[in-house]
Amino acid sequence: MAQQVSLQAATRSDTGKGAARTFRRAGKVPAVIYGHGREPEALVVDAPALSRMLTGISAGSTVVDVTVDGRAPVKALIREIQRNPVRPADIMHVDLYEIHADEKITVEVPVHLTGTADGVRNFGGVLDHILRTLELEVLPGDIPESIDLDVTPLGIGQSLYVRDIKVEKAEILNDEDLPVVTVVAPRAEEAAPAAIEEAPSTEPELIRKPKAEDEGTEPKA
User: Which of 75, 95, 76, 86 is nearest to 30 (CA)?
Assistant: First the structure.
């Protein structure tokens, strides 16, 4: 079952870019919660608390218990996290989608590989992990934390496809013919090109001082 975490939030009436900058300077992150059967509601959350919550979880498939203004918590999924393009650790905005226990939802669940493929261990092959998440349609209570695939039997040239994977109580929405992981043959070492004999140069060799010395500093050891 997927992880569950909690998050405290407060409603906000100030919207727009100017208000968002003011919140961020105060250590807050603007957010919005929406979903089936509810109007979108503008929120603000504590930035350090949000960062701590996101540490060590798969944001797209983790159920969040969101408490707004001290009311009874509602369950939600994180639909989007907007980050500062220059400082990715700084979160600019968060979208939360309220969910209900009896309604199926679509989530992205990470694929984890276990074991060491036979083609890698015994024949020097390379494991190529192609699909790192799978899209599932599932009830909130049945969201798996991850999809674990044992790659031990895979030899050179063998693959696991979406059609080979079954997830209990969930439907996989990806194309069944897509490869998830494959073992490819090792690349043949390229032969070194034959040395080409050249006539000795009659021009003097230019000796440059180390750059650090040029700049008046000690060269690195």
Answer: 95
